[in-house]
Amino acid sequence: MAKAAIDYLYYLRADKLPHMWCPGCGIGIVVKAMIGAIDDLGWDKNDIAVISGIGCTSRAPGYLDMNTLHTTHGRALTFATGVKMAQSTKHVIVISGDGDATAIGGNHFIHACRRNIDITEIIVNNNIYGMTGGQFSPTTPYGAKAATTPYGNIDPSFDLVELAKGAGATYVARASVDNGRMMQKLLRDGMEHHGFSVIEVLANCHTQFGRRNKMSDAVTMIDWIANRVVAKAKADKMTLEELEGKVITGLMYQNKERPEYTDEYDKLIERVQAKTSAKAGSGK
Amino acid sequence: MSDIIRYEAKEKDIVIIIDRDLCKGCDICVQVCKQDGLKLVDAPDKWEGASVEMINPELCNFCKLCEIQCPDFAIRVLRKDEEGTITIGKSKKTSAEQ
Questions:
Q1: What's the rounded Cα separation, in Å, for the pair A220 and A211?
Q2: Does the CA dihedral B7-A179-A94-A269 come out positive or negative?
Q3: Is residue A248 situated within a structural domain?
Q4: How far does A60 lie from chain B, in Å, by closest CA?
Q5: What is the pLDDT of residues A142-176, one digit of tens each?
Q6: Is the dihedral of CA A81, A25, A209, A132 positive or negative?
Q7: What is residue A192's predicted lDDT score, i.e. its pLDDT?
């Protein structure tokens, strides 16, 4: 007997569907891969907290029938840190967009990486601020047009993988919406990883980014992503010239050695309590 | 009532379910289907103006790419077991219920 099919509706608030995302929006594929990953791990949906900030991506918790929080712009990780510190046995997942995570919430992002707290952050990178009208974000490619860069963007863009790695995240991966199966695997491994995991997902915003850059429908834009990405195993065999303009997907970095933040916090409590109780004992 | 179209590939025991209420006609599934089994049709009753339909369910080879890549949870590709039932999640549903 084959594995039972995933019951998507069990994890979704079915009465909220159809969702508000544009036809063909990659965020739907990410949410589906996320449900697939959770189903693979066999986690109870009542043990999961999904937290988001502001943006199109941040509407995802509204459709997920789990413990969800829709917070202020860029501050999803701060709320998530609070939830994790209070209930360290629960699984905390943050879903946020590129602008939410790395521009407005950039500071929270690097410090969550530094602490290595056991949170999974999914950054849906669609190269633009989709919900607010298509302003350029820190990941808009050089030369691309946006509502606020009508003559082309002159800002160099962030490499989120390098940023997360440099800041101290212990699981860093990159996936893309053109390959939902690979995304599901990377999300599952990231959720399973004990420590801060960052999974960047290259997604399409054909409405705001594509329309200004000659890719006005979902299929053209997903093709553009599919043509740009190279899997890690394949990229390892390619020369630097061949990799020019390509983006590598797959597991980029994992470190299982670094201590996790809530573990360290528990140890600290234990140590201090032992010390104070010893003191109180000797005082009598 | 939701508007569900149910296709069945009889020889392969595959059931394909398309939820027209959820489909937004984005064309992704049509493009990912290697068997050219799906097509986009006009849907004047929907504001998107298009919805997906299956040309021939017998073409399906159970790769499930359309299901995985559908952003709207509108397509399910399911397989019946020997008894003709489909298992979704933890509960067992008969093919008639789906």
A1: 11
A2: positive
A3: yes
A4: 12
A5: 999 999 999 999 999 999 999 999 999 999 999 99
A6: negative
A7: 94
Total domain count, chain B: 1
Q: Which residues of B touch A6 (CB under 8 A)?
A: 88-89
Residues 183-202 of chain A whose Cβ lies under 8 A from any Cβ of chain B = 184
Flag whether A155 is in a domain: yes
Put simply, whether A217 touches B (Cβ < 8 Å) is: yes
Which chain B residues are closer than 8 Å to A63 by Cβ?
none
| Domain count along chain A | 1
DSSP SS3 for A90: coil
* Cβ separation A26–B81 shorter than 8 A: no
Kind of pairing, strands A48-52 and A67-70?
Answer: parallel
Domain presence at residue B97: no
**Contact: A5, B87; criterion CB under 8 Å:** yes
Q: Is the per-residue pLDDT at A3 higher than 80?
A: no
Judge contact between A25 and A18, C-beta under 8 A: no
Question: Which residues, 6 or more positions from A63, have their beta carbon under 8 angstroms from its beta carbon?
Answer: A12, A13, A16, A17, A19, A31
CA distance A275 to A281: 10
Which residues of chain B neighbour A219 with C-beta distances below 8 Å? 26-28, 31
* Coil vs helix vs strand at A234: helix
Q: What is the ipTM of this complex?
A: 0.88
Whole domain around residue B26: which residue ranges? 4-91
CATH number of the domain bearing residue A141: 3.40.50.970
CATH at B17:
3.30.70.20
A188: domain range? 8-259
- Of the listed ranges A249-263, B47-61, B77-91, the least confidently predicted one is B77-91
B88 to chain A, any CB pair closer than 8 A? The answer is yes
